[in-house]
Structure formats: C-alpha cells, structure tokens
Amino acid sequence: MASALTLANLLDWLDGGMLLLPTARAARELRASFDARRRALGLTAWEPAPALFWQQWTSSLWSELVVAGVETRLLLNAAQEHSLWREIVVDDTAHRTLGSPDSLAELAHTAWALAARYNTTARLPPSPSTAGLRHDSRIFSQWAAEFTRRCMERNLLSADLLDDALRLHVERGMLPAPTALELVGFADLTLAQQGLLTALRERGAAIAMHYLAAAPDAQPLRASITAADPREELQWAARWVRRYLEDHRESHPRVAILVPNLAEERAELDSVFRDVLAPELQSIATDLSSSPWEISAAAPLASLAMISAALGLAQWTRGPLSLDRIGTLLLSPYLGDPSQRDALACFDANTLRRQTLLRPQIDMAHVLRLLSPREPDTPALAEWLRDVQSLAQRAASIRAATFAEWMEHMRALLAAAQWPSAESQALTAAEFEATRAWDGVLDLVSTLDFSGRRVPFDAALEALQFHAQRTACASPTLRAPVQVMRVAEAEGCLFDAVVFLRATDANWPAPERANPLLPWPLQRSLAMPGTDAARTTQRAREVTAALLARSGTVLFTSAAADNEGQLRPAPLLTEFGVAQLSPEQLCPAPPPSPHIEPETFADDAPLPPLTTTQVRGGAAVLQAQAACGFRAFAEFRLFASGLESRDLGFDARDIGSRVHLALESFWREMKSQQRLLHATPEETDEILRLAVNTALQHNLTPRGDWDHTYLDLQRRRLHKLLKDWLEMERVRGPFQVIDSEHKVILPIGPLDLRLRLDRMDRIGVDDEGEDEVVLVDYKTGASAHPNLWQGNRPDEPQLPLYALHPPSGSVKAIAFAKVRPGKQMKWSGYEAEPGILPKARGNAADLNQLIADWRVTLTQLAQDFADGKAFVDPKAYPDTCDRCGQRLLCRLDPATLREQDNEESVEETDG
Hints:
This protein is of the alpha/beta class. It folds into five domains: 3-68 and 170-212, no CATH class; 77-157; 221-298 and 480-586, 3-Layer(aba) Sandwich (Rossmann fold), CATH 3.40.50; 300-473; 619-866, no CATH class. Strands 10-15-9-16-17-8-20 form a seven-stranded parallel β-sheet. Strands 21, 22, 23, 24, 25 and 26 form a six-stranded mixed β-sheet that branches.
C-alpha cells in the first residue's frame, strides 16, 4: 500500500536505503537536500545519497549483466539510435519524401519509443501492406521491422527496450531481484515499467510505492488570481514570489514556477524576473549564473554564442560563409586574442565590408589575402587564422576517417583558434557548463563509430551540428530559490510553494496529440496520449491532486484575455475548491515610481575654431549642415560614422561610380556630340564597350566563377543602360565635353571645399569670348530633382556649388543627368533658354537669380559650420533622421523613428 512521505521522511530513509524517483531532476533535488543536511550536521565527507532516477537504475542493472558476461549486446545511446534510424530512412529509396532524413528519423524514433513504453513494439504490423492502416503507419511498420532486424543482426539493443529486456532476464533468473525497492513520486508507470516490477515481485522483491506530501507544519494556501493580460499575470506572480521569499527568509524556502509552454515564455519570464526579483541584474553585462531563479527550458547547445562560434569556424574551414557570419566569427570573444578585438572590428568595418566587389560568400583564403603584411593592426588575427587554415588543409587531404578521429580534429581546430577564450579571459559559470556540454557532444558523436563506418569530415560535421542542436544546455544548477520548469518536470519534486502559470482551460489539461505513425486502433486500445479526452482530463486531475498534496502553498494564475481573445481559468480549479482572489488581495500593488524633475542646462558653450579652412568632405559638409547642424558637427568635426551596410556585388554607390567612370572614359574618346552623331553604330558601340570594361575593372581583381559571372551580367546591363542614355545625348543641342571629373578647390565663406565636377559641356561662346557651359551631375538614383536645390537648407547642394565655380553669366544650364532605365531616364534641371536640354525648366533671369541666391545660402551654411552651430535641428523630423548615422549621439527620441519604421514595414508588406 502506498504511503505518504515528506522531505524529512525521505532524508531519513536515505540514511539506510535506496530510493527510486521518476525524473533526473527529482533525484538531483533530493541528493542536494541530503548533502545540505550533512553539511548542517558539520560533516565534511559522506557517502553519496542513494537516490536514483529510473533510467539511471535500469542502466546500472544492464551494466551488471554486461560485466557478468550475461549480455553482449551494445545498449544504444541517443546518437547511435538516431544514426541507425537515419540509416534506415536513407536506405528506403521506395519511400523518399520532402522531409529531411534527420527529421524523419526523429519522428520514427518517437513512435518507436512510445510503442516501447506500452510494450507494443512486437505488436506493430509486420507487413507494410496490412489492410486498414494509413500510408504513414504502413511505412513506419516497415521501418520498425528493419530496425529490429538490424539490431538483431548487429547485436544491438534499443534503450527504449531496456525495461523489457531486463524483465526477461529477471524471469529467466539471470538478474537477481533486490530484497526491497522503494519508488517515490511516480504519478504513472508505463506498461514496460510495470512489467519489470511485476517480474521482480514474482522473484521475491518487496516493492513499495510512496507518494509525496507537504510538511505537517505547512500552512496550506490554495488560491488563484486572474490578471488583465499575460504580461501583468507574470508581474503579479513575480511580486507574490518575491514577497513569499522575503516573508520566509529564515527558512530558505524553495519555490517552483510551473509553465505549460515554457520554451515560448522563456524570454519574457527572464525579463519580468529581472525587473521584479532582481532589478540589480538589469545590466546586459551582468553574469546571470547566480541569479535567484533557474529556468529549466534549456536552450539548444548549438544556439549558444560560444558553440555557434565553434561550429561556424568548422564550417568556414570547409568552404565560404556569408559576410555577416564571418564578421560574427572575427568579432567573437571566444576566438582569437581578446586584446585584438578593436583591431578586428576596424578590419571588419574598414576592409572586409568595404571591398569593391562584395561576394555573397567569402572563404578563409580570401580573408587571409586581405590580411597582408601591410595591415599592421591585425597580426594576431592572421596568426590564429593561418593555424586554423593549415589544419584544415591537412584534413582536406584525408578522404575518410572515423568519427572519433574527426572529433579530435575538431578539438585541434578550436585549440588553434584559442577557443573558448584566451587564458586572460575567465569563463562564467554558464560558459563553463557549455564547454562541458560541448565535450559531451564531441564524445557522443565519437560513439557513432559503433557502425564501423569511415566518413568524410562534412558528414562528421553534419552529425556534430545535429546533436549540438538536439542537446539542451541548462544553466549550472546552483539550487536557486526559484525553479522554473514545465509541469511534467515537477513530478517527484518537493517545494515549499508552487506557482502554476497560464492555468487556463486551453493549457490545463494540456492538449495531447496521437502519434501520426502508430496505428490508431493500437493507440486507442492502450489509451495512449491524444486518443482519449477523458483519460487526458483524468491524468490532469491526478497531477493536480498530487501537486496540492505535496506542496504547502499553491497559487494558480491566469489572464482574462490575450491578443487572441478572452481566456477562462481551468475548470479543474473549481473542482478542487481553489479560492479565487483578486491580485491585490494576494499581494499589494507596488508603489508608483517617484517622479524625477528634469534638470535643464544651457547648451551655450562655444566650440573651438576650425584648425584649417580646408575641410574634408566637399559638398557633403554643407549637405549635412543643411540637414542638421549636429550631423555636420558629428561627421566632419568628430568624424563619427556608422557601419555601412552594403549590398552583395556592387551596391548602389558602386554602380553610380562606375556609371561615372564609364561616361568619363567614353567622352574622353568621343569628345563631342558632333562626332557622336557622325560615328557609325559599330564605332560607337566599340568605344562604349571599352569604356564599360574600363569602369568595371577599376580597382578590381575578379577571382572565381562568381566574380566573372557577376561582372559579365553587370557589363551587359551597363552597356545597355549607357547605350540608351546616348540617345538622350543625341537629341539635345550641340555640345562639346570640355571637362570631366574635374577636381577644384572652391572658396565658400570661411571654407575651402574640394569638389569634383562630373562634367562640363561647352555649348557656345558669349559676346565677350567666354565659354557658355552646361554643368552636369550624373545620377543613378530615383530621387534626384531640382527641388532639392531650393530653400535655405538645400538637400543637394553639390550642383549649386559647381555653379559658383565659373563666372555666373557663363552658366547656361545646370542639370541632373538621370541615367536610369525606362521612363526615368531624362534631364532634370534649369536652362537659360529653351532647347539647350530637353524638357528642362526656367529662363536666363531665373537661372542667374538662382545662382545668386545659392551663393548667399551656401555661404551662410559654410559660416554656420565654421562657427560650430551644431544644434540638433533636423530639417524634416523624423524623415531626416531616418538614415542618419548619428542617432546614437543626438538627443532625439528614437521611439518615434521606430514607430515610423514599423509603419513603413506594414506599408511594404501590404503592398
């Protein structure tokens, strides 16, 4: 007959006998409590507590059989069993699907494990053509038969069949039964477990079942609260937990927080707990290894930054990676020398990301070419990267090796890269735990040698990545007072208080689904999960009753509504008589935050004068000053700049500059419109072809097939674009190109700006013998328009500045040459008289007046910049700030920009 045991009873029992618990967590928690009692008694050494979880116990029994020579079969671990299922899926060419072999192997193993728990693997239909079965069930039956055959052929045993195999040995007298066996906290035994226990009883073992109970002096609290929304629910729960811990500080209480969908809630839980339980941990640089809460929903090992760096480095040795991935590796604190991090950041921003032709993927050899001896700031990077490449080159000559040999190669690669960190950088507790888990995964993959296969490194790396993703890496267990876990993990555990979050009718009873691969009649006959709603409800009822029995204080929380609509508390709460309280009755609301009056300071300190009149930046200085004085100050006096975002291949600026280069080269040869009109199509096409080739080859050394293919596409595109543009040149008035890409220094107010004029055409000579000219600025973007020259704060002051260079009266037209495909290809500007440029606007009086106005406006902007007028005053907030690289330095509220970004994203999505 089952008996009730408190924590004190369990600890007393461990002094003289062994206890079996249902989960690894329950056994670990009990052993920790046992150790705490021993320390409290003043002991310095003691035997480990004989508290085992079920799988640990059965594995030890199997080891005894192996040592005694009774068993010779290899008990498969998780990696080996997955490998065998994957092998079967890959070999089944008759049933290939779109699913990956790994996902199908996982699905098949899940179905097999479920069947094993119910002792039904032998009852799976042996023939794939069995009538009445669905297609998926027939395929799985065939896979299961093949799995059984291969296990028998290779002398292997599935871990899911261990309980049944031990039962057979007990029945045959090959495994002696223990005198007594004490099981604690088992809510439900599988048929396989029941079969083993029955065999042990028949062999004389005294088996006792115990359930857990709260301490007799516990003051029970059974209550539930309903908050307005899910976020508020978490906040009320966290406030109550904090108050409970403070009220019971002397007894060192332990609180469990049960969350039905823990993996989805982890980030928000962590955020609320930081805010309520430990606001001192708000800093992102804080090590959370010793926080007062532990969340059992461990992240996949491969998702951790240090493990991702290790896997990424291995992938890089096999072939090129994306630019972002390489940047992440170079700046990783887990690779290379931490003291070189700033130099690496400069290399990434100023060299790697500013290549003329940005490839979609970059290999290690290309990065090493960029790290030539002329780069003095990155010697440490080159050193460890060359060591890694040297190891990779030696490995590339090996066609195949064992998994264990490849895992040793992996360790050598990481050692060469100084992973996980240099000796001067200490690991946090969480990082140290991750390195232990990583070593465990390397050892796990090494056991795949059970198959006797030799594989290439790519196959070994693929297996390593899969098992690193499959392995959960929990934070180090420090016995934090607050334990956050799934409901099933609480089985067999004792806590002073329990908070059951999200206790709604949608989450409790938790929804269950039948297995898609097992035959439905078989699942239904055995009441497997997802086949009987009444059984699911009864199981939840039993779990709830056990939870209330073994916990002195239980609080259920729910929300009245979420984003999807109204919510209702779980009906089981009413059935168990749980009292419904308001959140304020349970825990007083926190006081409002104190209001802090802002302090105002006058920003009237003068800036130091410019050290020279020659300011780097050209027309961009006045463009920035017109947009916002602070931007001009930050960019051209502080020289602050954001990281540039570049597109693959040529970005928009690269394409624009190569259009400039091609047209410069073309007109250097063609000279004038007259020659253009009289040249044969073949002659014009040849000059244009040479000009395009010259532009594309400027400062560029193509390497590999991707480079050559991409440049060929750009060559054809650019040739077509410029050929169409030459038609625009043919229909305007006569001209001769007299200057192209000409550099000048233009005095404007107190500044001397370096300018480069795209092009100047001579269209005639005035009465005084001076050239009459047209100023041209090539544009490949869509936004170029004469309106950008207007007002006291012009958006595009470059052409107005050019207009101030020659005598005002000689400028007969000023225009953007919009070299764009389709209808957007046109001239856009002002002309002194009709006919100079097609569809230009304005007359001579207007143009002369515009130039005079521009002189005043641009002189004032130059004076403002020199005087240090650096007020945060965007011309058109927030549009001016949208792509400003100084948003981290200025004092404007970035929230409004995020709102605008969200609105733009919605508009783009809707479009």
